[in-house]
Amino acid sequence: MMKISVTVYSTDLSDAELRQLSQLGVDCIDFGSGSAFRGVKEQGYPDLDELLKLKRRLRSFGLDINRVTLPDLTKNFMEGNHDGEKELENSVQALKVFGEAGIPIVRQRFEGDTFPHLTVKYRALHRGGAIARGEMLLTNEMNGEQLVKSFETNWKRFCEAYRRLVPIAEEYGVSIGMHPSDVPHPGTLFGGLGYQRIIDEFPSRHVGYIYCIGTRAEEGRSSLVYDEIRHYGRKGRIFLVHFRNVRGSLPTTKAFEEALLDDGDLNMCRILLELYKVGFRGCLNPDHVPILEGAAYTEHPSWPNTCIHWSYNNVGYAYSIGYMKALLAALVEFAG
């Protein structure tokens, strides 16, 4: 059966935090920052002994590590600067360390995979005054020729990185999952057709997706989500699911707003059933959660007005986890 994971951005989790996660019924931790692990600041990649120590500590609370993030590949790498090769080497070494530690899923971030200047960010108010992330489409300032040139340049650098990383992932039995570009504008590296190209270019079973329901719905609403779950899921390429609901989409309303799981446009119960039907048995992560009364959160400049990682006593996450566990319990009764 599917499990539940939550995202954190630090390895310095207190006993109280880990107890609360265990009490809520969380199964696994996803580490969302490539610099979260000890050793990265000192040598550029995680220290294996410290990672194994962290893994043992989490297991003492009934938790496990599901997904980690490799050190970021920044503008230096994407533009072919000399320092960029050192960044890639750090990612290669990090992947080997995570493989040695038995971590099942890694993600590699690529700077420049989104076009933030094409939307305006705003604060949406939902049920009872809940604060949610909203983004509204602006006029596309890039012409078609520029879009194609930018995409192909970035795609070339992406392929260079994956050609180094994929053989190592295969050697260590690690899956490399890619999150879609959020926001998925035309021409973004991992939006639209670019997302499909990943498994065309790299047909390895260790290459696939951190499939974000909300981000893909931003591009094509529920019909696209159902189609992609069937397409990628039957190939066994969905490694982790970000279980996020939204209102609106870029093609229809020219804007979208993230929403609580029961308060968006998507039928999350049906989505769960589609995942089950294609054989997905990995983790569901509540991902971006609207800000409810009393929640303490750290605002991220790229994704304001939402909680992008779990925090102690965050009622929005507690609600989302409970909602997901109820759906999973109902799925057992329904599916048998």
Which whole number gives the mean pLDDT?
95
Q: Please name the CATH architecture.
A: Alpha-Beta Barrel
Supply the number of helical segments. Answer: 11
What is the beta-strand fraction? 15-25%
Return the CATH class: Alpha Beta
Q: Indicate the radius of gyration in whole angstroms.
A: 19 Å
H/E topology pattern: EHEHHEHHEEEHEHEHEEHEHEH
What structural class do you assign from the helix and strand content? alpha/beta
Distance between the termini: 11 Å
- Total domain units: 1
Low-confidence segments, ≥5 residues, pLDDT <50?
Answer: none
* CATH homologous superfamily placement: Divalent-metal-dependent TIM barrel enzymes
Q: Which strand order do you get reading across the main beta sheet? A: 1-2-3-4-7-8-9-12
CATH topology, what is it called? TIM Barrel
Task: Note the overall shape.
Answer: globular
Taking the sheet with the most strands, its summary is: 8 strands, parallel, barrel
The number of strands is 12
> Helical residue percent?
40-55%
